[in-house]
UniProtKB/TrEMBL annotation:
<dbReference type="InterPro" id="IPR022623">
    <property type="entry name" value="Glyco_trans_4"/>
</dbReference>
<feature type="domain" description="Glycosyl transferase family 4">
    <location>
        <begin position="24"/>
        <end position="192"/>
    </location>
</feature>
<protein>
    <submittedName>
        <fullName>Glycosyl transferase</fullName>
    </submittedName>
</protein>
<dbReference type="Pfam" id="PF13692">
    <property type="entry name" value="Glyco_trans_1_4"/>
</dbReference>
<keyword id="KW-0808">Transferase</keyword>
<dbReference type="Pfam" id="PF12000">
    <property type="entry name" value="Glyco_trans_4_3"/>
</dbReference>
<dbReference type="GO" id="GO:0016740">
    <property type="term" value="F:transferase activity"/>
</dbReference>
Length: 418
């Protein structure tokens, strides 16, 4: 079988699936904008856009034009593959940035399996969720998001089948389309991501202060790709005055960059600095350590020594870091928001708190710090759930491979024809 993977940031969610298919003997090619990719058995080709967005366009259309520009660039790279003789049986593609828009023009008969991650809306999702950032015009916001969904709607018509990582993310799609999407998580390597009671974290923070921490220390961890409101950075920072005042030994570690991954950019400076400045006069800054973006091994060590790991998010896509924290046996405190509720059950494998209640968050962190033995059953259950529901080798990857085979044959997962 010939397979093509397409992802702007390849390998993205295909990090394990693409080489697994290559290991089965299939011919696997990939297209993306990543500078260089080395995956066993995967022939990777990079493409780039030829133009920037047009100045003066209607602001609601700028996003779609950017997707068309990327779709064109990807289609040209695909065309070169076709001219070299490559015709895929199946294209696995993340359509979120526009790359899938024109692939049917290159290979009309190739089946397409889309990674369907999210569908925009103003009800029950990230936009309009946080009263701190109210919609200045709800009607205009709805119109803007409707136009932004143009790419999503076009791709729902182009795909033969879809895959989403959580039930809630699939549920953001129009009801008529949800029956064409399988829910299979990307999966994590629970064998490698295991607890280590002897773990040691040795790192230097952004102020040049060296740290050496173990599970004997009182450590709170907070991880974002970038420190920003959509992942609860502001709510976390507002919990620190109470936490630090009542626990004189706790150390707070924040991992993440100063940029923006989701949502709007700040009016000036960085979200990190804005909310640090807000609490600066009420915290002991000597016990708050910003680590920035760290190597993966450092991130894992931080979670392994964590006494309380906080994960907060608007109703949006679920971060791999939450599932990894479960597998690592970290005591988890998470926001009571979807899709977090699919992974964390309050009092069973972690704790859920109101996203906006900084005092409740502080109280829960203090409880975890004061009673580490009481967290052991939850930590063990979280790891068991990670293995049972999200393990890469025994659960997720086999399901992904089976779905690829089905769609390539022109079948739905239940065996009916597509």
């Amino acid at each position: 079988m010939k397979l093509l993977f397409v992802h702007q940031n390849f390998p993205g969610q295909y990090k394990h699936l693409a080489p697994a298919l290559a290991a089965q003997g299939h011919e696997v090619r990939a297209l993306g904008m990543t500078e260089r990719v080395d995956l066993p058995g995967v022939q990777y080709q990079r493409y780039g856009t030829r133009r920037a967005s047009t100045k003066g366009l209607h602001p609601w259309v700028v996003d779609f034009e950017a997707k068309v520009i990327r779709g064109e660039a990807c289609a040209q790279a695909a065309r070169r593959l076709r001219e070299s003789g490559f015709v895929p049986d199946l294209i696995c593609v993340h359509p979120g940035w526009g790359e899938a828009l024109l692939l049917r023009e290159v290979w009309p008969e190739a089946r397409q399996l889309h990674y369907v991650e999210f569908f925009y809306g103003t009800q029950g999702r990230d936009v309009g969720f946080d009263p701190e950032f109210p919609l200045t015009d709800a009607f205009e916001a709805g119109c803007r998001l409707s136009i932004k969904n143009t790419n999503n709607l076009l791709n729902l018509g182009l795909m033969d089948w879809g895959i989403s990582p959580t039930q809630w993310q699939r549920a953001t799609l129009p009801a008529a389309q949800q029956g064409r999407i399988s829910v299979i998580h990307d999966g994590i390597d629970t064998a490698a991501l295991c607890p280590d009671e002897a773990a040691v974290l040795e790192v230097t923070d952004d102020q040049g202060r060296p740290l050496r921490l173990t599970r004997a220390d009182r450590v709170v961890t907070f991880v974002n790709r970038n420190l920003e409101p959509s992942r609860g950075y502001h709510a976390f920072m507002r919990s620190l005055p109470t936490l630090l005042a009542r626990d004189p030994q706790v150390r707070v570690l924040l991992i993440g960059g100063d940029g923006v991954s989701y949502g709007a950019a700040p009016p000036a400076g960085s979200w990190k600095q804005i909310y640090l400045d807000e609490v600066a006069g009420r915290i002991d800054a000597q016990r708050v350590h910003f680590l920035g973006k760290v190597p993966y091994a450092t991130y894992l060590a931080a979670l392994r020594v964590s006494s309380a790991h906080v994960y907060l998010t608007y109703p949006f896509v679920l971060s791999w870091s939450l599932i990894e924290a479960m597998s690592l046996g970290a005591p988890i405190i998470a926001s009571d928001t979807p899709p977090v509720r699919e992974a964390i059950e309050h009092g069973r494998n972690g704790w859920l708190v109101d996203f906006f209640d900084a005092e409740a968050l502080a109280e829960r962190m203090l409880t975890c710090l004061a009673d580490p033995a009481g967290q052991l059953p939850l930590r063990a259950t979280a790891r068991e759930d990670a293995i049972r529901r999200y393990d890469l080798r025994s659960v997720c990857l086999p399901a992904q491979l089976a779905l690829v085979q089905s769609v390539a044959r022109g079948e739905r997962p239940d065996g009916a024809a597509l």
